[in-house]
Amino acid sequence: MARAPLLQLNDISLTFGGEPVFDDLSLIIQPGDRVALVGRNGSGKSTLMKVMAGLIEPDCGTRIVAPGVRVGYMEQEPDMAGFATLGDYAAAALGPEEMYRVEMAGEGLKFDPARPVATASGGERRRAALARLMAEAPELMLLDEPTNHLDIEAIGWLEETLRSTRRAYVVISHDRAFLRELTHATLWIDRGIVRRQEEGFGGFEAWRDKVWEEEDIARHKLDRKIRAEARWAVEGISARRKRNQGRVRALQELRAAARRQIRRQGTAAMALDSGPASGRKVIEATDISKSYEDKLILRPFSLRVMRGERVAFVGPNGVGKTTLLRILMGEIPPDTGTVTHGTNLVPAVFDQARARLDPEMTLWESLTGDPEMRVPGQADQVLVRGAPRHVVGYLKDFLFDERQARAPVKSLSGGEKARLLLARIMARESNLLVLDEPTNDLDIETLDLLQELLDDYDGTVLLVSHDRDFLDRVATTTIAMEGDGRAVAYAGGWSDYRAQRGEDVTEAPKRIERPAPKKPAPKQPAPAASGLSFTERHRLDALPEVMSRLEAEIAKLTELLSDPDLFAREPVKFRRATEALAQRQAALAEAEEEWLALAGKAEG
What we know:
Layout: E1 7-14, E2 22-29, E3 34-39, H1 45-53, E4 60-65, E5 71-73, H2 86-90, H3 99-109, H4 122-136, E6 140-144, H5 152-164, E7 168-172, H6 176-182, E8 185-190, E9 193-197, H7 204-240, H8 245-260, E10 281-292, E11 295-306, E12 310-314, H9 321-328, E13 336-341, E14 347-350, H10 363-368, E15 374-375, E16 378-384, E17 387-390, H11 391-397, H12 414-426, E18 432-436, H13 444-456, E19 460-464, H14 468-474, E20 477-483, E21 486-491, H15 494-500, H16 526-530, H17 534-561, H18 566-569, H19 571-602
Parallel strand pairs: 3-7, 3-8, 5-6, 6-7, 12-19, 12-20, 14-18, 18-19
Antiparallel strand pairs: 1-2, 1-4, 8-9, 10-11, 10-13, 15-16, 16-17, 20-21
């Protein structure tokens, strides 16, 4: 028997007094749904989620929640007035016997329930809001960017918790790996239209591109028909001195239909200019260490960063990634050791806290007030990579409209603030980019563009991020802050780091399929047919996957070692990669011999 929907939205329209955000929107959330809610920054994802939560009243339409169903919403900026501690807020709806749920969530999400609300950071408040939702476990959970401000370990805990729950959820996230792992359906908001596909985020981009391709074909056909009818309207006057008024009205209707079509918003016109080349050696740190009072941040650590490298820093929140980054940049001194910068460095910094943006300034003032962007005597011009540009025109490159130019920075969403900061960074030449959590709040299309720009950037990149997919796409070296002051350098990105540590890599490169051993003739007695023990049979079944994983790791290490300058540039990395390659080649040879022996034994 079919179960009743948890939530229904019927014919919802919402305008906020201007252009409609949604018009005649209807959707259904069923029990057990695991839905990715995707769309461009500013498309209305968070607004739709608040309508689903009952926090925004639509202009018209109905919201129906099934009897007995609780809908929980993770607030981006939770109101904690009246609560002494984060734990008090997280446990507000729970009885004393259920407090253990908050403690479990606090441990998994790495926030201290005893932390006073007055001293809690924005990230800690958001983690408390997420813990509250997970502890209450409503029948429908609405999660708006739950992975922001979580480190990779906490994201792993959240993934496992959501994977094992029977509750339905709708999630907004920029984290591709998170969405691919957890979702079975996709809601896509595009220019006020909400479409649904019964496939998780892994199939979203192919679906989106197909929809857009069909739309382009239909628009092309309509434009062609309008041109043909317009040609008839002009030529028909001289040919017959009398118009077919019905056909003229049809042409007017075609033109009106074309005007009603909402053009897709393009991608941000971001660009990076690496400017003058730096010296070949960018940063050399020798035996640097750092402690604060009784907390050890970094044991003696050495690192050489060469021109063109993309170095990622990973590890739990609070382990010291940003501190190490600031030491390398010369912003704070190490307790021991030395940091030497190469010649001709021109750095540009994207900071996690967006501290370089004044919330009271307008977007216009944020650009024209930057000393490096100011054009003397031109209040409406900014200097963009050496050339003057009108401030509004430059803001449009980053998908801001003219009305937003005079709006205060504090009115922007998280993704819009990130784009504004990128606009400031990309206006100047640089040859060293320092990106501290740049992926937070950016939509997937902008992330794709940022990755492409970094791929083409001639300078050097230092990157802190918890986005595993982004790390795999960008990083050439990963510095893992492993706790207790230990920092270890690994070749490659996130998956490479985990593979070199011997951890299971779920998002491994495409595996090479191997033929299964031939099955024995069905009429032979079972013992003669196989000749394998239970343990041997299990090992035979497991070996193809082991060999495929080793082959993928060998391919990545071989690609890394193909760089002819690697030994001279980074001898330590070269030595480690060479050793890792030899180990994996030996392991693959042993696995192949074992597979051949067991397959032969299975065939009798």
